[in-house]
Design a protein that fits this description.
- By secondary structure, the protein is mostly beta strands.
- The protein has a single domain, classed as Jelly Rolls (Sandwich), CATH 2.60.120.
- Helix content is 0%, strand content 46%.
- It is globular and about 40 Å long.
- The chain starts with 11 loop residues before the first strand and ends in a 12-residue tail after the last strand.
- 38% of the residues are buried.
Length: 209
């Protein structure tokens, strides 16, 4: 079921994170005390210390091709929050199967995207420190995987792409929004919607525009 989705269809699910403050979801636990954003109705503010969402079931659990989109507003650089994890999904049966989305925030208040797939002993990181974006503003970031190519996107523009074999996370997963699963690399800033699609969308088809 799509939760507060701006565009509902058979192959997508969107979460408006602020709605979780008022709607109980059996698969999502609010950790810490994230607050509703005063800037965007759909968003939660995460303090970079102990705020996150813990997920016990996700739309991506059986996906072998997917698009994951996020609305994010990173705050300025701080030493404790320079490598925040935006999203982390991992198989509970095989910790070597993983999907992550991260930021690297520089001392001059820029950031660059970092996305990772792990499939058994093999892993692929897509990251380029030269593709910089300013902090303290909203962005739409996305990752796509079509069964062959893993790609990253910022503001609807493809940044990096590389071939990789990934056969999905399996049926049972755990996940975390705004921190790594093992409670490090907390995100300081705001996250609005997260949209999941079980196929690769083109930039013109992205749910978050």
């Amino acid at each position: 079921m799509a939760i507060g989705s701006p565009s509902v269809d058979s192959d997508s699910e969107c979460w408006r994170l602020a709605h979780f403050l008022n709607i109980t979801q059996s698969n999502i636990e609010i950790v810490g005390s994230p607050k509703k954003s005063s800037d965007k109705d759909s968003a939660l503010v995460f303090n970079g210390i102990n705020d996150r969402l813990f997920i016990t079931k996700s739309p991506v659990h059986n996906y072998t091709g997917f698009t994951i989109e996020m609305e994010v507003h990173p705050y300025a650089f701080s030493e404790k929050n320079s490598e925040p994890r935006l999203l982390h999904f991992e198989s509970t049966e095989d910790g070597n199967k993983r999907i992550t989305m991260e930021m690297r925030i520089t001392e001059d208040n820029n950031w660059y995207f970092d996305a990772f797939l792990k499939n058994g002993k093999e892993g692929l990181t897509l990251v380029d420190p030269n593709k910089l974006h300013a902090t303290e503003r909203w962005y739409n970031v996305a990752i796509t995987y079509d069964g062959h190519w893993f790609s990253t996107w910022v503001q609807g523009k493809k940044e990096l792409s590389q071939s990789f074999y990934f056969n999905g996370l399996g049926e049972h997963i755990t996940g975390s929004v705004a921190a790594r699963l093992n409670k490090v690399h907390w995100f300081k800033g705001e996250i609005g919607q997260i949209c999941y699609s079980n196929r690769v969308l083109s930039a013109s088809q992205f749910k978050l525009q």
